[in-house]
Design goal:
Layout (H helix, E strand, L loop, with lengths): L2 H13 L5 E5 L4 E4 L1 H7 L3 H4 L14 H12 L6 E8 L5 E12 L5 E10 L1 H29 L1 H17 L4 H28 L8 E4 H18 L2 E5 L5 E4 L1 H25 L12 E9 L3 E8 L29 H11 L3 E5 L7 E8 L3
Parallel strand pairs: 7-9
Antiparallel strand pairs: 1-2, 1-5, 3-4, 4-5, 6-8, 9-10, 10-12, 11-12
Helix pairs in contact: 5-7, 6-7, 7-10, 8-9, 9-10
Length: 370
């Protein structure tokens, strides 16, 4: 095989490879990335070449992790590194990959630079998480069904007796207040059990129909307008000229719950101090609802100026019972229920944040109604 022809074949193999490939020089400067690399991470070749692979770094790996990785590569007895890491794409979303880094050498055997070949594990990790989630929900469903019967009936009796006692102690203000507290806590327990049943249930066939987004979100805006006014929060609902396939009441409930969650995050930020997102152009806290569409999907975005989310929590917030709220202020089921309802409508929900204090954006993805 002639050298020129061989070089062309090797180049085409790398250029057309489905897996992301990058080459750096000995100093770690990117010299080449293939189209699959650009597609996976969202950077153009011009943006990548001359830069450093550090532009892909996420907070999932520490500096010590990278030190050990390079110690392995530079160890002459090993000479390469392979392992799973999580990179960050240009738009901020995380990309789990199986990465292999090997040095490439010149004719004299000296190291000229390094080649990184990645296998995108996003789909695999998503399937693993879905299986884990389904197993967890099945366990929760069994627990909730048992609790609904074993706890629900006694709670009903206790509440009935508490109501009877409250009628009998109307002249005793202190006793009446104590009984109101007891009844309130009973209702909270009952609501918790019902939420457990809801988040773990196997849904009936849900009828998806084409619906216009604007009337749905306008009604949510009406419901939240007074709460936002009292909290001194600007609420802005943009024109959403898009039709989606969804169940109207479920979608409205999801949007309402997420916006209430954002209001709570703004209240939390207020308790911590001034938000770094606020300035002269936008001095008040805000809650924005907008939507973008492509040919197949609609992306409903709920953005707030609240306390934000640490990166390590972004993958956890939709897990059942996970909450960052103080004890007694959250059950850890609201976002899990939203994720479950989106899944039932063949959609998804994700959260993006630049970190604590920098607000958060929830993105609901639904199929467009053609």
């Amino acid at each position: 095989m002639q050298a020129g022809f061989a070089a062309e074949v090797y180049y085409r193999c790398v250029e057309d490879c489905f897996e992301p490939i990058m080459l750096t020089d000995i100093k770690g400067t990117l010299k080449y990335v293939n189209p699959a690399w650009c597609l996976t991470y969202g950077y153009t070749k011009d943006e990548a070449i001359g830069n450093s692979p550090k532009l892909l770094r996420s907070d999932y790996q520490t500096d010590e992790f990278y030190r050990q990785m390079w110690a392995t590569i530079l160890n002459p007895k090993i000479g390469f590194w392979r392992g799973e890491i999580v990179n960050r794409a240009k738009d901020g979303h995380f990309v789990p990959v199986l990465l292999t880094i090997t040095p490439y050498r010149g004719p004299a055997g000296d190291i000229l630079g390094y080649m990184g070949i990645a296998v995108d594990l996003s789909e695999q990790k998503s399937m693993e998480q879905q299986i884990i989630r389904q197993d967890r929900l099945a366990s929760v469903g069994m627990l909730a069904s048992g609790m609904a019967h074993e706890i629900g009936n006694p709670m009903g009796v206790i509440r009935g007796r508490a109501e009877l006692l409250r009628q009998q102690v109307k002249d005793n203000e202190a006793a009446e207040k104590n009984l109101e507290v007891i009844i309130g806590q009973i209702d909270r327990i009952t609501g918790l059990i019902q939420s457990l049943l809801k988040v773990s249930r196997v849904p009936d066939v849900i009828s998806l129909s084409p619906i216009a987004l604007q009337p749905v979100v306008d009604e949510v805006g009406v419901l939240l307008r007074e709460s936002c006014r009292k909290a001194n929060v600007d609420i802005l609902i943009h024109d959403l000229k898009c039709n989606v396939l969804a169940e109207p009441s479920n979608l409205q409930q999801i949007i309402l719950n997420l916006m209430i969650n954002s209001l709570h995050a703004i209240e939390d930020q207020n308790s911590r101090g001034p938000s770094p997102l606020l300035n002269e152009k936008r001095p008040r806290h805000f809650l924005d609802l907008s939507a973008d569409c492509d040919a197949d999907f609609c992306y409903i975005k709920i953005k707030d100026s609240g306390c934000g989310r640490p990166s390590e929590n972004l993958q956890k917030i939709f897990r059942i019972f996970f909450t960052t709220k103080a004890a007694g202020k959250g059950t850890g089921m609201g976002l899990a229920i939203a994720a479950k309802q989106m899944e039932e409508m063949n959609g998804s929900v994700n959260c993006f944040s630049d970190g604590a204090g920098f607000g958060a954006t929830f993105v609901l993805t639904l199929r467009r109604a053609k």
